[in-house]
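Re-run with default settings, no changes from the original entry. Doing this only to confirm the output is reproducible before filing.
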Amino acid sequence: MYRQVATALSFASLVLGQQVGTLTAEKHPSLPIEVCTAPGACTKEDTTVVLDSNWRWTHVTDGYSNCYTGNSWDATACPDGKTCAANCALDGAEYETTYGISTPSAGALRLNFVTKNGDGTNVGSRVYLMAGEEKYRLFNLLNKEFTMDVDVSKLPCGLNGAVYFSEMDEDGGLSRFEGNKAGAKYGTGYCDSQCPQDIKFINGEANVEGWGGTDGNSGAGKYGTCCAEMDIWEANLDATAYTPHPCKVTEQTRCETEEDCGAGDNRYAGQCDKDGCDFNSFRMGDKEFYGPEKTVDTSKPFTLVTQFVTEDGTDTGALKSIHRFYVQDGKVIPNSMTVVEGVDAVNNISDEYCAQQKTAFGDNNYFKTVGGLAAMGKSLEKMVLVLSIWDDHAVSMNWLDSNYPTDADPTKPGVARGRCDPEAGLPETVEAAHPDAYVIYSNIKVGAINSTFTAA
């Protein structure tokens, strides 16, 4: 909901660019998935993952000099956005040694939180699923279900092992934007519903204008990059939420004003619904459903199923509701029921649920304003899969696993989202206390409703 991006690298030499460098070969780690038509009728796809370009080393095209150091652009290489994109080359990545990204077994991806390497320390990562070397793997999720195994047993309070879909260009913007020569092969073209302004290159141009440092290794510029986002899984050991975030726009779009970006006081005027309509079991009244030794026991792996049900049961129908199941120790566990005054006792997301939740919690229903599930459904026809691990430099992940706002009465409906101490998610705290944290995603499947798992 309040995703902080482009701040993960604490060593200044790793940044983003748009030309292609030749100093490190780019080799995408394997992460095969399965596509299913019925239970037991699944076909393997030899997909891979690619590291987001915001994590990569960028240097001048004719040498080793950085285009960005600390939280500042090099004035010579980057006097303006277009010149910077022409002058700077984006290089390949050493996935495991530099970023802590590994494939411990076939069909499994492990993302380490903190990785020490020869250049310094990397914190967090974000990757995208690829179909071949040059294009992201596009998903149409309407009338489908998306299933995967997750292990969050080593992911404490304040961290987020996030799996979501963003409406990114299949080629990373390569064909749309002349200044982008790297494309999906190097993880370009990111966007999400927060319209992040700390992305260093957007639409093939450097985000130089108005750029200012926000901490030692990151900053923010005038422009943001917006698109619809479907959060399948934002979670740690103690809390989880799944959340649709529709937008007014239907493709990756650069926002150019504070209003369009939804910045500051314009949160409910921007291109996208930054709040979304979340289903967090703890927040919705069942505090014993998710966590160590709870109904879904997060001390050990489990399977996560998300279904996108349409009005007419077709792949082109309007999105009606989003359902969640868990499978653990051979048992299918339906999502928890809501226990909130003013909200019907349901366990899925629909427009009716969202309207009732927003009213009960006193929240702005911008979800409805930008089109609700109908708008989200249109975007679900062409989505890119994102897998990440991150800590929150904005609000310490309190919106996911603690009380938020932190100064609000935790007995007020909607404020308590998890059991975590609000201070536990401070980046300096969690990075020092839990550098060995990690998440594992595995056995990814997509297919017809009830085809990817055995329903009880």
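The CA atoms of residues 182 and 430 lie 34 Å apart. The first strand starts at residue 19 and ends at 20.
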